[in-house]
Amino acid sequence: MRHFSLWLLKWVDDLNRIKLGYVDLDEKMEAALGDPDEDGSGDTLVKRAESYYQKRPQLIALLQDLYKSYLYLSDRYIRALSRNKNRTHARQSSHVSALTDHDYFENDKEEDCWAVQIDSSDAESSLSYQNPLPLANLGYVACLDALVADLVIKNVECEILLDEVSISEQRCNDSSRKIELQKSLLEVLESERMILLHENARLGYRVSVLVEENCELASESVFVKRKAGELAQCMMKMREDQRVLLLSRKIEDLQGQIYGLEKRNKEYYEQLVKRDQEDHKIDAKKKKNGGEVTLEACLPIGKVKLMKNGNESVKGDGEKRVTKWWERVKNMDIFMCGMQTDIS
């Protein structure tokens, strides 16, 4: 009865220590994971993956602690079973458990202190009433521990792979969305390209039409220039014709004046001839009438000379006037140079 009470107290103490160990492990996990609302790491998948990779060493350390705790509990469970079966081998079993506990918890300080306390209490209790484990059970325990460790590692690797698969699926979804967006953008660009091609063709047609119109206008401008030259020549000819017409009219007027002067000169000449004839007749009559007084005898000699000189001067003045008018006609510049706008 005394041994049972001691064992019960020991079991309760171990249970409390195990609970404290799990509470400490939970606190470490919460401290390692942190609050996603405060960190802002749970907004997007990329931020969560980045925070996961940053906290991966802490998680691996916690996983190692969990694995060591799991091994310790499995060892305690195996030792409890072996206690019930083999009470006679308590010292050997306690010694082996103390060695395994010391190997499992020598890296972590907190867990090491906890393991040393548990091992010391286990050693005190097991030295009193536990029997040592056989060698076959020790091999079985080692195999079981290896299987459990492999199982835990595989589960962790499976979780990591699932997380990576979810990340890759998310990336694949994002890439598919990007591909769809790029396809839609490509369709829009293709439609714009077709519109631009049609616009380019329309502009090319307009350019060709404008080039043809330009050629036509150039030919029309050449034709207009030619016609303008012809019209200018016609205007020059017309002005020359007008000038010739005016000059011909002036010549006709001058000829008329010359004809009038010649006619007057002829009349004067006829008058002078008649006077001469009359004078000759008078002279002949005077000679016949010998005793009659002549005009020269009645008039002074100077007046008779003046009359003769007057007749000669009239004849000479008429001839001089005709020659002067003819010289003026000859000296006129009929073929004038240059353009004259005012023709008078």
User: Into which percent range does the helicity of residues fall?
Assistant: over 70%
Along the chain, the helix and strand elements come as: HHHHHHHHH
- Largest sheet composition: none
**Count of runs of 4 or more consecutive helical residues:** 9
**What Rg, in angstroms, do the CA atoms define?**
77 Å
Task: Give the helix/strand class.
Answer: mainly alpha
Strand content: under 5%
**Shape type:** rod-shaped
Number of strands: 0
Q: End-to-end distance, in Å? A: 167 Å
Low-confidence stretches: 88-136, 295-305, 334-344
Average pLDDT over all residues: 69
InterPro entries: NAB
Pfam family, one: KIP1
Protein name: Kinase-interacting family protein-like isoform X2
GO molecular function: actin binding
What does this structure look like?
This protein has 344 residues and is an all-alpha fold. The longest helix has 154 residues. The termini are far apart. The protein contains nine helices and no strands. Among the domains are: 132 residues; 88 residues. Helix 4 runs antiparallel to helix 7. The radius of gyration is 77 Å and the shape is rod-shaped.
